[in-house]
Amino acid sequence: MPRLPLRSLTIATTTTASSSSPPHLAIVPYYRRLLLPQGGPRLSQPPVSVPRHAKGGSKMSTMAASHGHSEACCNIPPVVSKGYEARGSYVDLGGYRTYVTGPEDAEKAIVVVYDIFGYFEQTLQGADILAYGGAKQQCRVFMPDWFRGKPCPIEWYPPDTEEKKKNLGDFFASFPPPNIAALMPAYVGAIKEKNGSVKKLGIVGVSDPSSSSSSSSSSSSSSSAPFYCWGGKVVALTTKAANNPFSVAASVHPAMVDPADAEGISIPTVLLASKDEPEQAVAKFEASLQGPKLVETFSDQIHGWMAARADLSDKRVKDEYERGYKTLLTFFGQYL
């Protein structure tokens, strides 16, 4: 049976069990599976290593549930390189304009925290994949506009001038992740109130490509605002809180991985890193997670390859964009 091409695979163990009218999109068979050995490893087993097979692959680890890692159950539409027409619509939910996609009667839901560039077609396409890509389960997906129509202009990146640095610093200071994380339980309450069929929720944070080296020269708000791994930071702060409303979490290309953010996270968590994340920080983050986990580095992809900065006209980027979302679908299919 074909397997996901990886440079290395480590299986660890844990005591924890377990804007427009939508076009009709054809469904195509998936071509990769992500599995563990039949039945999964016993919880008492030591880590198992599989040697590297191919140059240019990626690294992944996964922590197995009591029944092992299920096979990928994803059957996603063809990825559109340019001019994507979103399948969902915009509604007011919990006081926020929200992109909503997926079956109205779905019992599972996912909240997507977009990157700092807001509603880009690559990000909307990703939300649609998460909604409709599961062959065995489909989800209602919600992407709230936390920036209230004022996302970060993508022209500010890279922050290679003092003006850009100041603008970015001011932007982050206006939308600090702790403030957004504090709003999440009430927002989930609004989802459940308007969507009575939803029983369980997951969260996906799509992070910006910011860099700590791009510090601002502004004296007040800007100078005190770090350049956050924005979406990932929101996810971490939300899921480690005592009032966490989510059952599973994901962080995608998280700039400035902070291992301390993983401490206290006990729900199943997947982190897909780009080549720009420090390998040591990713490893420490993984080690600090307390629940089932999957951590993979896409070693030839940049920050943003699954969101606003994805150049889907590039075949390699397109393939890895697709594989990234299939990986999320697999993990969420198992734990959500």
TrEMBL record:
InterPro entries: AB_hydrolase_fold (IPR029058). Residues 40-62 are annotated as: Disordered. This is Dienelactone hydrolase domain-containing protein. The lineage of its organism: Eukaryota, Fungi, Dikarya, Ascomycota, Pezizomycotina.
